[in-house]
Amino acid sequence: MLSLPAEFEQFHWMVDMVQNVDMGLIVIDRDYNVQVWNGFMTHHSGKMAQEVIGKSLFEVFPEIPQEWFRLKTKPVYDLGCRSFITWQQRPYLFKCRNVRPVTQQADFMYQNITLNPMRTPTGAINSLFLSIQDTTAEALVVLKAHQS
Question: What pLDDT, in 10s, does the model give residues 121-141?
Answer without folding.
Answer: 999 999 999 999 999 989 988
